[in-house]
Amino acid sequence: MNILVINAGSSSLKYQLLNPDTGDLLAKGLCERIGIDGKFTYKPQIEGKETLSAVDVAMPTHAEAIQAVLDALVDAKNGVIGSMQEIDAVGHRVVHGGEAFNQSVVITDEVLKAIEDCIPLAPLHNPANLTGIRACQKVMPGVPMVAVFDTAFHQTMPAKAYMYALPYAYYETDKVRRYGFHGTSHKYVSGRAAAMLGKKPEELKLVSCHLGNGSSIAAVDCGKSVDTSMGFTPLAGLPMGTRSGDLDAGILQYLMNKYGMGIDEMLNVLNKKSGVEGLSGVSSDFRDLENAAAEGNQRALLAEEKFAYEVKKYVGAYAAAMGGVDAIIFTAGVGENDKGIRAMVCQGLEYMGVKLDAEANNVRGKECVISTADSKVKILLIPTNEELMIAKDTAALTQK
Ligand code: ADP
After folding, report:
1. Ligand 1 — pocket residues by CB below 6 A?
2. Could you report the per-residue pLDDT of 310-365, keeping only the tens digit for each?
3. Domain spans, the chain
4. Is the distance from CB of 210 to CB of 225 less than 8 angstroms?
5. pLDDT one-digit tens code per residue, 151-167
6. Active site residue 150
7. CB contact burial 97-119 (16+ within 10 A = b; e otherwise)
8. How far does residue 333's CA lie from ligand 1's centre (Å)?
9. What does CATH list as the number for 199-386?
């Protein structure tokens, strides 16, 4: 069985063709500058097949982009499948499912309407995701399609976790609440954690730390998300590459008045000029921070310390929320690769039974246990694979 996974943005589209049962990747790539000049990248994963890197392909709309993907996949010389019939279904990443979706769904007209209804909650992302779905339906009529939502996994949160202490009408009328994001990643790594520990998800209390360019943490109790650090938007929670994370809303009034900024300009500062980049003045990339800190740059060190300190506080908070924790998971770009950040997060948590094994922690991007044998709380490094999770959900919903 082969599943095509599509992650459509407003002018770009990432794709992977993979086998959901074995996890084998057949090909992946990227269409960029859709509606502009069209650049197409194709990376077949089979020996002897040639890669295409940012070649010119006319893509006035997403439909031509998807056609280019299909043409490459079935190409006589460099293709990885014989015909389109070998694509059993398509899984689409959709950012926001609001309260309408607590799991992945087969796409129907009603589902498309419900995704449209969530546009006010994700005005940049959902329209692009919908464009990708409609383009696929046009080019691949009759092929079953599934929507997989970033928010769905967190729909199990109890009201005390997802409600803000605002006038209740803002929830009832305007749907203002915590939704949480990165759900596909948190779901995937918590499933892998159970497998690694030889336990059922229902037996585990997990703190899942997705630390990348965007970062979020989830408390996963008995296989269900019970709290998460991102909120109504992905701006909340941890400081990130360029996003501020949580802050005192009073700061907005103070800075906007002082500098005559409008709300859009203020939000641009919080989304694009803050986080570890804003704090360090060096970079949003943790590799650059590490190098600068090693050369004595104090603000780069401060940015790393601030980030790790906030992660550590969430670990403590979520242990309290769940009444314990069996394992801490590190995933995504920083979580998988940055042993220094992992060490800073775990340092000082020994009192709650968290003991990092310094030698085992000297590893990158490999699924493994990095706590000591006597650590009460296991520490796990698990590379995330959102595409595989999307492919598995898609297969499960479309298999006869
Ligand atoms: P996204 O949120 O865009 O999916 P990723 O999960 O791919 O991001 O994470 C990207 C980030 O991971 C980079 O910005 C960088 O900070 C960090 N990163 C990647 N490789 C390393 C590394 N070897 N050491 C430290 N940090 C790394």
Report:
1. 212-214, 241, 285-287, 332-334, 337-338
2. 999 999 999 999 999 999 999 999 999 999 999 999 999 999 999 999 999 999 99
3. 3-149, 199-386
4. no
5. 999 999 999 999 999 99
6. yes
7. bbebbeebbebeeebbebbeebb
8. 3
9. 3.30.420.40
